[in-house]
Every structure is written in C-alpha cells, then in structure tokens.
C-alpha cells in the first residue's frame, strides 16, 4: 500500500483531531525517517522534541528489550529496580529531591498543580488558592493543564475549566506582580516557551519571579517538558539561569519515545505537600518506562550529549541567522540550544512545511507563524547544512 491508501483507511477510523501531513512514516535510522513508499526525510522535529537520540539506536533498544524480557508492569503497590534507578538519575541531574513518574507531560502538570495546592493547603488549612500562568503558554490538553494554558482558542469550548488561574504576560515582571494576591500558591511557566513560538525567558524576568516566590512562599513551577533533557545544552534550561524551581515538570525526551513524564519536587515542597493517598497512577513509572529513562540518562552521559548540543547549537544559530539576513520574510531567530524558531512574516508557515515535506525535510511550526527546529540532539553540522539546503528550496 502507498501513502494515500493507508491515509484513506486511517481517516475511516481515527477521530479527526489532527490535520496530519499526508505521509505514513514507517521506520527511522539516526536523524532520518522513511515513509511506506521508501521516501526519506531529514528530521528536525524529533516527534515534537521527543526523539533526542534519533531513531533505531541499538543500545537504547537493547536496554528496552532486556527489560521486556524481564517484566513490563507491576503497579505502584510494589518497588522495582528501574523505578528507583531512573528516579536517582533525575534527582542527580536536577539537584532536586523527589520524583513522581507519569505517562505524559499533561499528567506531570496535573501532579505539579496538585502538589502546589496541597503545599498551600497544608500551610494555611484553607482552600481556594490561585495559580499564576503565562499568556501564550502551553502545558497540555487535560482540563487542569488546559486551565493554565494561555490560549483562548484551546480553552473556549471546554469552559468552565479549573478555577483560580490568573494570567500574566511572559517576560513582563510587572504584569506578574499585578496578579499576585494573598491566595497565590504557585507561578507556572515554561523556561523556554515552546508551542507559543519559541520564547526564552529573560534572565531578569525569571530571577524577578523567583524573588516574588521567595518573599511570599509561592511555589515556582518550571515546565521543562519541551526545553529540558539536554535540549538547550544543560540537563534543564533553568540551570543556565541559576534559578531553581520548587517543582519541575519533565516529559517528551525523558523517555526518547517511550511515553513517560515526571514531576520533580525540591526538598521544601516534597516534605510538605503530597502525602500517601493524595496522588496515584496505575502505569506511571512502570518498569518499561523507567528502563527507557535509565537508558536515556546512561546514553546521554556516555556520549556527552550535553556538550555535543553546546558545540552544535551555535552552528545552527549561525546558519539560521544567515537565512534571516538573506530573506526579507524571515523576521528574527529566537531560541536556546537545539530549540530554535524563525519568525515568519507575510507567508504562511504551513506552506513552507508542506514544501519542505516534498523536499524530504521535516520541520515544525509553533505559535503565530514560527518555524520551529527541535531536531534529535545527535545531529551534526552536515545535517544542519543539508537541512538549510532543503529549507531554502522550500521557500
Ligand atoms: C508537550 C508539552 C506539554 C504536554 O505534554 P503531553 O505529553 O503532550 O501531555 C506540556 N508542556 C510543554 C511545555 C510541552 O511542550
């Protein structure tokens, strides 16, 4: 069967919640994907910032196979070795204190919201606490995560959402201060906004928020689901700002393809928020998911992925900057590490993406007319050159 025959079948049975690109991807090697007709694509999307190790990595696959042959699932009523070892890795990489594994990013956000509310409840014995979130943020599609997602279009049909959420403008500290009340229990933001259009937090903004949080015992929740796990050249983007969150959420590249997320608490929050009976999950942190997390941390360390990102990213930035100089419709480049965006004007990004696909290149969009580049972290300069060639012929 070719692409269109498979697509016709898919459209008979799948709920139409996505306008998918017209390709059926079947396999991958390194940073290349292949569709059912044998056409190859250079991948600068990584399954939305997930496949940091690329595709078909033998050691990663071996680690999964070895876990599959032992046990897949045990529930959270018991301990497992991969669960403990994966949590140890996450604690060490973040310098934080305690981990709760989830199955997705949205669930990590749900857990972070519950931990923040419980922390405030345990302190005052009151309910009705509020959370400050950012405009143009993205935290996921479940009702709680959607409630802190600053996007009217995503929220509108599903109201009423979770109450007690106030929105401030990203990188505008005064607008955050205006939303603080005696009921504020947390401020949540992405260290680098992803879906909203690739906007890194200004250092002064993040430091200012941390100061407000410390002064008023408000918890800082940093969403590192997209920008974490080495994408910006450090394990987590906040480590480059010197601003530590009280709660961090993580997912996407955490499992490099096996669905897994986590929320991680610092000592202060862990000691005074969620307690036995307050939160749970059947699958979260199961042995297969944790074997993937463990393999990801091991392979990142063995291969020096963080320093590879730090070496490669300036080249990507340079090449994208050259495009901005060369083409009037490219307004600016923004980003950190291997999380980059090009602001496009007067041309629909969708058209560029479709042309790119025809030219065997996968790139993503974000926000209002932004081209988003979140490649596997194993890309080389040659891949970047090839991407630029294919992108230019797509303009
Ligand atoms: C993708 C994403 C989420 C949601 O993760 P899911 O696994 O899709 O639920 C939350 N926050 C950020 C910053 C994301 O990029």
Automatic annotation (TrEMBL):
Cofactor(s) named in the record: pyridoxal 5'-phosphate
Root EC class: transferase
Pathway(s) where this gene product acts: Amino-acid biosynthesis; L-arginine biosynthesis; N(2)-acetyl-L-ornithine from L-glutamate: step 4/4
Entry note: cofactor: Binds 1 pyridoxal phosphate per subunit.
UniProt modified residues of type N6-(pyridoxal phosphate)lysine: 252
A cellular component annotation (GO) from this entry: cytoplasm
A GO term for molecular function: identical protein binding
CDD domains per record: OAT_like
Main location: cytoplasm
Annotated positions binding N(2)-acetyl-L-ornithine: 141, 281
Enzyme Commission code(s) on record: 2.6.1.11
GO biological process per UniProt: L-arginine biosynthetic process
Presence of keyword Cytoplasm: yes
Reaction equations catalysed: N(2)-acetyl-L-ornithine + 2-oxoglutarate = N-acetyl-L-glutamate 5-semialdehyde + L-glutamate
Subcellular location: Cytoplasm
Pfam families (alphabetical): Aminotran_3
Keywords attached to this entry: Amino-acid biosynthesis, Aminotransferase, Arginine biosynthesis, Cytoplasm, Pyridoxal phosphate, Transferase
Binding site residues for pyridoxal 5'-phosphate: 105-106, 138, 223-226, 282
Note: May also have succinyldiaminopimelate aminotransferase activity, thus carrying out the corresponding step in lysine biosynthesis.
Sequence similarity: Belongs to the class-III pyridoxal-phosphate-dependent aminotransferase family. ArgD subfamily.
Subunit structure: Homodimer.
Protein name (database record): Acetylornithine aminotransferase
Protein source organism: Candidatus Choladousia intestinavium
Lineage: Bacteria, Bacillati, Bacillota, Clostridia, Lachnospirales
């Amino acid at each position: 069967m070719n692409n269109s025959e498979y697509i016709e079948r898919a459209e008979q049975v799948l709920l139409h919640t996505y306008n998918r690109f017209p390709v059926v991807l079947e396999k991958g090697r390194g940073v290349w994907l292949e569709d059912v007709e044998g056409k190859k694509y250079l991948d600068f999307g990584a399954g939305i910032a997930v496949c940091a190790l690329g595709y078909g990595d033998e050691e990663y696959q071996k680690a999964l196979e070895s876990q599959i042959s032992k046990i897949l699932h045990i529930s959270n009523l018991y301990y497992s070795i991969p669960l403990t070892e994966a949590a140890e890795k996450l604690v060490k990489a973040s310098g934080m204190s305690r981990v709760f594994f989830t199955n997705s990013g949205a669930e990590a956000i749900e857990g972070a919201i519950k931990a923040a509310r419980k922390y405030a409840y345990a302190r005052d014995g009151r309910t009705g606490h509020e959370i400050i979130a950012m405009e143009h943020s993205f935290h996921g599609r479940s009702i709680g995560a959607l409630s802190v997602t600053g996007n009217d279009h995503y929220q509108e049909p599903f109201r009423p959402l979770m109450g007690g959420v106030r929105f401030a403008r990203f990188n505008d500290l005064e607008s955050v201060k205006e939303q603080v009340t005696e009921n504020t229990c947390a401020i949540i933001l992405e260290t680098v906004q992803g879906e909203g259009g690739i906007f890194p937090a200004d250092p002064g903004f993040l430091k200012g928020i941390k100061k407000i949080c410390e002064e008023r015992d408000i918890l800082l929740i940093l969403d590192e689901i997209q920008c974490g796990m080495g994408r910006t050249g450090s394990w987590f983007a906040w480590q480059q700002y010197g601003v530590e969150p009280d709660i961090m959420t993580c997912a996407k590249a955490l499992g490099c393809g096996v669905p897994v997320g986590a929320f991680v608490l610092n000592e202060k929050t862990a000691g005074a928020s969620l307690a036995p009976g307050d939160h749970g999950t059947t699958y979260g942190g199961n042995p297969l998911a944790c074997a993937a997390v463990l393999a990801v941390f091991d392979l990142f360390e063995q291969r020096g992925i963080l320093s590879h990102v730090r070496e490669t990213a300036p080249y990507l930035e340079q090449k994208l900057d050259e495009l901005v100089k060369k083409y009037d419709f490219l307004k600016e480049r923004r980003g950190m590490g291997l999380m980059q965006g090009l602001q496009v004007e007067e041309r629909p990004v969708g058209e560029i993406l479709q042309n790119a696909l025809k030219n065997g290149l996968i790139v993503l969009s974000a926000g209002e007319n932004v081209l988003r580049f979140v490649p596997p972290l194993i890309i080389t300069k040659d891949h970047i050159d090839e991407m630029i060639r294919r992108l230019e012929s797509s303009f």
